[in-house]
Amino acid sequence: MSLETTEIQDKLVETFGENVFHFNQEKDIFSFEVTADKITAIVLFLKNDPTLRFHFLTDICGVHYPDNAIERQFVVVYHMHNWYENKRIKIKAFINGETPDIKTISTIFPSANWMERETWDFYGINFIGHPQLKRILNMDEMISFPMRKEFPLEDGGRTDKDDRFFGRTQSNR
């Protein structure tokens, strides 16, 4: 039996009600939004339900929308895959820009550990309950989060960069 998106949606709405919404089919990925405080329960349900069987966490990433209302300035995006039926889903959980906190799912999927660390490293999204939330790619001394929109694209004070090597010289010839 093939797993249909309507079945996924029906099971989620039946179990979580208004905490799941904005269902949408985007090419071959079924996407929806969840309330951030229910993320662990929803991910656990998607993994353990005998029909849904989303046993593989493909990716976790963050997105910054500074022009959104403060309570929707950040979104954590989860991609999961059901290998039995070859179905993929995308889950979006919007979080507050002043306190970008969301619960970790590293207790459900150990592979989430590094993905959550990377998301914290670049966006400053705090994964509550994460066993070792520290920088993974940037320097430990860094005090900003470089994927946030307020982060400058270039550091004007760099001395190790010569614009001539990047095709940015003005030719007077």
Automatic annotation (TrEMBL):
Region Disordered: start-end pairs: 154-173
Subcellular location: Cell membrane
InterPro entries for the chain: NADH_DH_suC, NADH_quin_OxRdtase_su_C/D-like, NADH_UbQ_OxRdtase_30kDa_su, NADH_UbQ_OxRdtase_CS
Cross-referenced Pfam families: Complex1_30kDa
Main localization (coarse): membrane
Entry EC number(s): 7.1.1.-
Compositionally skewed regions (Basic and acidic residues) per UniProt: 154-166
Recorded topology in the membrane: Peripheral membrane protein
PROSITE patterns in alphabetical order: COMPLEX1_30K
GO terms of molecular function: NADH dehydrogenase (quinone) (non-electrogenic) activity; NADH dehydrogenase (ubiquinone) activity; quinone binding
Keywords: Cell membrane, Membrane, NAD, Quinone, Translocase, Transport
Domain NADH:ubiquinone oxidoreductase 30kDa subunit: 33-154
One Gene Ontology CC term in the entry: plasma membrane
Catalytic activity: a quinone + NADH + 5 H(+)(in) = a quinol + NAD(+) + 4 H(+)(out)
PANTHER family on file: NADH DEHYDROGENASE [UBIQUINONE] IRON-SULFUR PROTEIN 3, MITOCHONDRIAL (PTHR10884:SF14), NADH DEHYDROGENASE UBIQUINONE IRON-SULFUR PROTEIN 3 (PTHR10884)
Family per similarity comment: Belongs to the complex I 30 kDa subunit family.
Function statement: NDH-1 shuttles electrons from NADH, via FMN and iron-sulfur (Fe-S) centers, to quinones in the respiratory chain. The immediate electron acceptor for the enzyme in this species is believed to be a menaquinone. Couples the redox reaction to proton translocation (for every two electrons transferred, four hydrogen ions are translocated across the cytoplasmic membrane), and thus conserves the redox energy in a proton gradient.
Summary of subunit composition and partner proteins: NDH-1 is composed of 14 different subunits. Subunits NuoB, C, D, E, F, and G constitute the peripheral sector of the complex.
UniProt-recorded name of the protein: NADH-quinone oxidoreductase subunit C
Encoding gene per record: nuoC
